[in-house]
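ugh ok fine here u go
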Amino acid sequence: MREIKCKAKKIRNGEWVYGDLVINTETDTNRIFGSFANVVHGDITDNGLHYCSGQLDEVYPETVCQYTGMKDKNGKKVYEGDIVRFCDDPPYCSDYTIKYDDERMIWIADGVGDFMEDLWELSEDYVEVIGNIHDKAQQKQAIIDMMRDDEKLGLYDE
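structure:
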């Protein structure tokens, strides 16, 4: 059975939290159980929620990213919205943004322009998570790194 986990940024402090996504449609809030310890089945509160123990953080809904089931070459989990670098022939590397393609119902690695790959066509041995689309500092650094690599290859030479 596949592991379904999410990550998102906490409203409280902007830090990432990992765990199980809980959406309350009545209050229109998204929360993540950071450490889902134990639900006592049958014990329901006045508002219909189960009693439970664990950390429950409210998160920005636009930052919710689902785990793809893949890990990078360092064993780090790859989530939707992650920016990954694929390097099977250094120094020729490609950066991709991980997205879910609703039409084909698969995870894809979206590259420059119209170039896309089925995520599972990229070997985990050559994939490294370098950032996330919701982390501005990491976005800037990824662009700088990409430009430096392009410069090394002479792509900016006249």
